[in-house]
Specification:
This is DUF349 domain-containing protein. By secondary structure, the chain is mainly α. Among the domains are: 168 residues, no CATH class; 69 residues; 90 residues, no CATH class; 84 residues. Helix content is 73%, strand content 0%. The protein has 23 helices and no strands. The chain is elongated and about 170 Å long.
Length: 745
């Protein structure tokens, strides 16, 4: 119970009552008692019992008993406590069990008596006693233990033992144990199946025998044994404490019995009685088997005390007010619990309030009994209705989880039935199963009636999928072995030709075996990396030698690149001059130097573009127009082509033809656009820009045509020179032949 709740100081005495006020109240009680003893037999407030059975019992003489009493028609204190007890026992109390496991059954019984609640709690020694659970202990999160793997179950049990009282998670511990045993049995079964596959039955006496060792299981059962040991120690300590409390309560009962024999002021005696009542309330729980008889002894002792003490009506009414105040505080706390969000906490505390109402609260005036009980019942009903709504909502969520899990099981069965045709498809199916497994384990629990069955179905369909997958890969073993043999043959070829000096022949062989390697399927995983590294090593050895040879052959091209870089840097360092002709002559000199240099490595070919861009800028700075600069720059390009081969001519010719076609297409498109524009409006910006674009494209087209013309001239000139060279060679050959055939003089 919270320290600040409405049940503090529920004994009727406020914390502010000081010693003077206590003394004045004692004096008032004594005065009222003396006045009551002097009244006649008809004086109002005289107390006796109206129970014929009780009046027939032998009465023990005590000094506090007024010798002459007459029966009063008003309700006595004895009547009040007996009637109040009967009213509580006979009334229907809507208090419900807090245990989730019996939640559904309890929800069907809207009203149960406090006596039934108490007897239900006494049925199981492992359950808590009459005391409420400690509200400072946080709620245990509901989890689906059946879907956890073995390491997670070990961690979960260890977490509960570290974070919660040892007596607060009995149900969870049992569920964890059942889930672990099922998972361990599955693991053992899988291990047996694997052992049978790897070790077929044999008559060999030395054949290995199946042994199942699970270190996680050893860890779990050691931890569970520790849990049971700690729980047993807790139960023993709890029993000892309950027996000590039982001894205290029996002592309290005996002290109440002794009050009637004490010769002292009635007010003092009554104060001692109240002190014993408070001590009774403060005493903790007692053993279940002694609860009913101890409570009955206490009730009879209290009843006998009231039998032997005739209270004045005012003193009796004062006690009624005190008890009414206590019961009103119980009601106020019950009303507050109606706003508690944690329904389990509210139910536990409400159960304690009902115990206090039954055991700790004394009787009240007859006219107040029904109203305050109705008020308490109404507050109880509010909490019960919230509990009912909570379980209804939980049942909806569980039903939704059931549907999700049923769909997951059906989907896994469908995937297993469809199967797969190759390794990639099986890997895709495996990923789908992983996603479904994750979804199943993260989905909350289904209704308890079907939750375990759904988990068993899930494990069954998962096993069937794994079996189908394993069967497929078993069939692949022979195929993978054949693939391994084929790749080993390719490795032998690669290693045979890795030192081949005939690079042209070796290159063709290496390309062929690399293509064949890609076509061959998978090999056993244990050999995959090893054979690939071996094959790759042989191939790399050949290509490294070939690259070294090519690098030697390209040494001249590297030197050409270095020479062109010097020309490029020299041209770049030129600064603008006032004498444009001198500057142009100097630029042309650099162009000539560039043209004399031969090919560069293919990876360095971009130096040509960089030089042409720089050359165009320098020509423009020399005073040439853009067209003249472009044509002069192209002369340098032609010089480079002259030192090239037929492939360079083809590439240049293709580029010029392609660019010429593109320009002509663009001009036609722009001319077509002009037809949709008012040609008379010379100020139209779109018209002006279009005409400008057409003019620029036509200029570029003229340049392209001129380049094609120059390229054709160069090609014809080179062809002519080649023919002349061939003719001259043929003529020289004929002359030499004639000279050799002429007779010597």
């Amino acid at each position: 119970m919270d320290k600040n709740d409405n049940l503090q100081n529920a004994d009727g005495n406020t914390p502010e009552m000081d010693s003077k006020k206590t003394e004045s109240q004692d004096a008032l009680e004594n005065a009222m008692l003396e006045e009551a003893t002097e009244k006649t037999t008809n004086t109002e407030g005289q107390e006796t019992t109206d129970s014929e059975t009780d009046s027939e019992q032998p009465v023990k003489t005590g000094t506090n008993k007024v010798e002459e009493t007459t029966q009063d028609t008003s309700t006595t204190h004895e009547d009040a406590i007996v009637n109040e007890k009967e009213a509580v026992e006979k009334s229907e109390d809507p208090i419900v069990e807090v245990d989730d496991e019996t939640g559904t059954a309890a929800a069907n019984n809207v009203e149960t008596t406090s006596e039934t609640t108490e007897s239900t709690k006494n049925d199981d020694d492992d359950e808590d006693d009459n005391e409420p659970e400690d509200d400072s202990v946080k709620e245990i999160e509901e989890k689906d233990y059946a879907s956890m793997d073995m390491p997670a179950l070990v961690n979960e049990l260890r977490f509960l033992m570290q974070e919660y009282p040892i007596n607060s998670f009995r149900t969870q511990a049992e569920d964890i144990k059942k889930a672990f045993e099922a998972a361990d049995a599955d693991a053992k079964k899988e291990a047996q199946e694997k052992f049978k596959e790897e070790n077929p039955p044999s008559d060999d006496p030395l054949a290995p025998e199946f042994e199942y060792k699970n270190e996680i299981a050893t860890e779990f059962y050691d931890l569970h044994s520790l849990y049971r040991k700690q729980k047993g120690q807790f139960q023993r300590d709890k029993r000892k404490q309950q027996e000590d409390n039982l001894a205290k309560r029996r002592e309290i009962i005996e002290n109440i019995k002794l009050l009637i024999d004490q010769e002292e002021n009635i007010g003092t005696t009554f104060k001692k009685f109240h002190a014993l009542q408070d001590e009774w309330k403060a005493t903790g729980n007692i053993p279940h088997d002694a609860y009913n008889i101890t409570w009955e002894d206490y009730r009879l002792a209290t009843q006998n005390f009231y039998d032997y003490i005739d209270l004045s009506k005012e003193l009796r009414d004062k006690d009624f007010e005190r008890n009414l105040e206590f019961r009103n505080k119980i009601i106020a706390r019950a009303v507050e619990l109606g706003n508690e969000e944690n329904i389990h906490k509210a139910l536990r505390e409400l159960q304690e309030l009902h115990r206090m109402w039954k055991e700790d609260a004394g009787p009240v005036a007859k006219e107040m009994r029904d109203p305050i009980w109705d008020e308490f019942s109404a507050a109880t009903k509010v909490i019960h209705d919230k509990r009912q709504a909570y379980y209804e909502e939980r049942d909806k969520i569980n039903a939704k989880n059931q549907l999700i899990k049923e769909n997951i099981v059906a989907e896994i069965a469908k995937i297993t039935e469809q199967g797969a045709k190759n390794h990639k498809e099986w890997q895709d199916r495996l990923e789908e199963i992983k996603v479904l497994r994750e979804l199943f384990t993260t989905t909350g629990p289904a209704p308890k009636a079907v939750n375990n069955e759904l988990w068993n179905q899930f494990r069954t369909v998962t096993r069937e999928f794994n079996k189908a997958k394993n069967d497929y890969y078993k069939g692949l073993k022979k195929e993978q072995q054949d693939n391994l043999d084929a790749k080993m043959k390719l490795i032998a070829i690669a290693e045979e030709h890795q030192d081949n000096e005939n690079f042209a022949e070796g290159l063709q062989i290496m390309k062929r075996i690399q293509a064949e390697w890609k076509q061959i399927g998978h090999v056993p995983k244990k050999d995959s990396d090893k054979i690939w590294k071996r094959f790759q090593k042989a191939c790399n050895a050949f290509f490294d030698k070939k690259s070294a040879q090519k690098k030697e052959e390209n040494k001249e091209e590297v030197e050409n690149f270095e020479a062109k870089m010097k020309v490029y840097d020299a041209l770049k360092e030129m600064i603008p001059q006032d004498d444009k002709k001198a500057m142009l002559a100097q630029v042309e000199l650099h162009m000539a130097d560039w043209a004399k240099i031969g090919r560069v490595p293919y990876s360095k070919r971009m130096i040509q573009d960089k030089f042409e861009k720089l050359l165009q800028a320098k020509l423009k700075a020399s005073g040439l127009s853009a067209v003249d600069a472009e044509m002069l720059k192209y002369q340098n390009k032609l010089a480079s082509l002259q030192n090239g081969d037929e492939k360079d001519f083809k590439n240049e010719r293709f580029y010029l033809r392609k660019r010429r076609d593109e320009i002509q297409d663009e001009v036609r498109q722009l001319d077509n656009n002009l037809q949709f524009i008012n040609a008379k409006d010379d100020k139209n910006p779109f018209l002006v820009q279009t005409k400008k674009n057409i003019a620029e494209l036509n200029k570029e087209l003229d340049v392209i045509k001129e380049k094609q013309k120059q390229l054709n001239i160069l090609q014809r000139q080179m062809k002519k020179e080649e023919e002349e060279a061939e003719a001259a060679a043929a003529e020289n050959e004929a002359t030499e032949s004639q000279e050799s055939e002429a007779p010597a003089e």
